[in-house]
Write a structure and sequence with these properties.
Number of helices: 1
CATH topology: Lipocalin
CATH architecture: Beta Barrel
Helix content: 10-25%
Radius of gyration: 19 Å
Distance between the termini: 59 Å
Number of strands: 11
Shape: globular
Structural class: alpha+beta
Order of helices and strands: HEEEEEEEEEEE
């Protein structure tokens, strides 16, 4: 009987570990480098930007985003965050408008983000990768640190 229990315990542990490895190995389709397509993007409210490049990488469940933006005034800025799609808050650096975000996976190609400043919600964003994996669409509505409003639909091409 003891041998049967030990075998069952080993089988359960092996199964659980295998499942965890398979889940961690799933790459988010957003991983890669994306360049803003200004002709397809829409700036409904707030200042436009001159260019933006987003680079996403993944390690296990963590996704890291480095976003390099050039404003219409020519000023360059880099926003950085590492997050998981689990609804918890993660720090963001490089933008005065929000200092953390939480992310939830909607489906395999779409994630929803809540943007916060000092713990208070200041905006929401959604990113969706096209079925063919070549386009990334990001919508964002935000109240800036200066009290202005932004409402963007940004379309990116995968490099």
């Amino acid at each position: 009987m003891r041998t049967l229990l030990v075998c069952a315990a080993i089988a359960i542990l092996t199964s659980a570990t295998g499942l965890r490895i398979a889940t961690a190995a799933e790459m988010d389709p957003v991983v890669g480098t994306w360049k803003l397509d200004m002709g397809k993007s829409l700036f409904k409210a707030g200042p436009s930007i001159r260019s933006q490049t987003r680079t996403y990488s993944q390690s296990g469940e963590e996704i890291t985003l480095e976003m390099k933006t050039v404003g219409v005034d020519g000023k360059e800025g880099t926003t950085h965050t590492t997050y998981q799609l689990n609804g918890k808050d993660y720090a963001v650096t490089g933008t005065p408008d929000y200092d953390s975000l939480s992310a939830k996976k909607i489906n395999t190609r779409t994630a929803h983000f809540t943007l916060k400043k000092g713990g208070k919600i200041v905006g929401r964003s959604t990113r969706t990768v096209s079925k063919d994996g070549k386009k990334l669409t990001s919508t964002q509505r935000l109240t800036t640190a200066m009290g202005g409003k932004t409402d963007y639909v940004l379309v990116f091409d995968k490099e």
